[in-house]
Amino acid sequence: MSGHNLPDTVRSQVGGRRSGQPEAAPDSLGERLEAVADGTLSANTVRALKADLERFAAWCAERDLRPLPADADTVAAYVDAMSGDRAPATVRRHVSSIAAVHRAAGERSPLEDAEVRRALSRMRRRKGSRQAQVEGLTWALRRRLIEAAGDGLIDVRNRAILAVAYDAMLRRSELVALEVVDVKVDRGGSASLLVRRAKTDPEGGGAVLYLHGDTVRMLKEWLAESGVREGPLFRSVRKDGSVVGALHPGQVARIYKGMARRAGLSAKVVDRLSGHSPRVGAAQDMIASGIELPAIMQAGRWRSVRMVQRYGERLLAKRNGAARLARLQKRR
Question: Which long-range contacts (CB under 8 A, 24 or more apart) does 152-157 make?
């Protein structure tokens, strides 16, 4: 595979250890991706890809292998090694990240090689491809977490975060990117929320979403007590109560988990919570309420019905043809 799209200096940084060349730094693949992406990928996407690539580069360095361009047998061996103790979805994501940096650098994607596809097939046969389901923060759980929150400033913030995330069905990256100016309160007490850029909106066209009045009241309480007037909507709060910079996406799941533990939820439920749990829970509530899939997709800004079906598969099963037939038959 040719490296003609990479300058010699960069090629020596990311090409692994060769004769007369230094060993690649573990983070050089991620840095290379950031350079060649040049605004074509969102900042959140680049950050996630870099974390995966750093792991791959470090694994290659330990074995004196070249990470870019990587040989097919290198990537296949990485799949075999990773699949021993990681979920199939995690392994597939790592391989997709490796493929992404190859494409960005003008190299042939390892996914095009039969050896890599065979390694992925081996993993699927051994472990299956079904992912563990994220715990949805449905309306009942949302209310329980909010009611159990304390009276401190951080609790006021956490209530507002959970309420906003549920109403607008926000991803964690969208939640932490919100600014004060993005909220417009209507005369009736509800509000519109501008999400400027999302995972499915890399061009930044934006989407205007809905916040109910009870959510707006919690949001106003946070703004009043924190003194936040402009800039990032949700901020970190120190132990002494001082309000500092914007939240990192990784903090969102920890906030939900902390609220859940305080509310007395089981350790099993807490462990399954993620930064997207309010988004999943809202979708599940919509399905349970009989709202049709196109309306749910519009609210959650999904382009495919697949994710909605996965989040609500148990609820949707109760509405499928077999379930409807059983009800018509009045079976007991």
Answer: 152/241, 153/225, 153/226, 153/237, 153/241, 153/243, 154/237, 156/218, 156/221, 156/222, 156/225, 156/226, 157/222, 157/226, 157/234, 157/235, 157/237
pLDDT greater than 60 at residue 87: yes
Q: Which amino acid would we find at residue 124?
A: R
Burial class (CB in 10 A: 0-12, 13-18, 19+), 55: middle
Question: Can you say whether residue 25 is alpha, beta or left, with left for phi > 0 and alpha for psi between -120 and 50 degrees?
Answer: beta
Q: Residue range 209-229: average pLDDT? A: 95
How many other β-carbons are positioned within 10 Å of the β-carbon of residue 21? 12
d(CA 178, CA 180): 7
Do residues 71 and 60 lie in contact, with contact meaning Cβ atoms separated by under 8 Å? no
The DSSP line for 135-161 is PP--HHHHHHHHHH--SSHHHHHHHHH
Chain segment 105-149, per-residue pLDDT in tens = 788 888 888 998 888 888 887 765 555 567 899 999 999 999 999
- 168-191 pLDDT per residue, tens: 999 998 999 999 999 999 989 999
CB-CB contact of 124 with 235 (8 Å)? no
**Tokens in use for 259?**
């609220």
Q: How far is CA 156 from CA 32, 190, 217, 274, in A?
A: 41, 19, 11, 20
The one-letter amino acid code at 152 reads: G
Q: Which two tokens stand for residue 292?
A: 């049709």
CA neighbor of 249 nearest in space, from 169, 170, 307: 170
Q: Are 289 and 260 in contact (CB under 8 A)?
A: no
> Helix 28-37 to helix 88-104 angle, to the nearest 10 degrees?
60
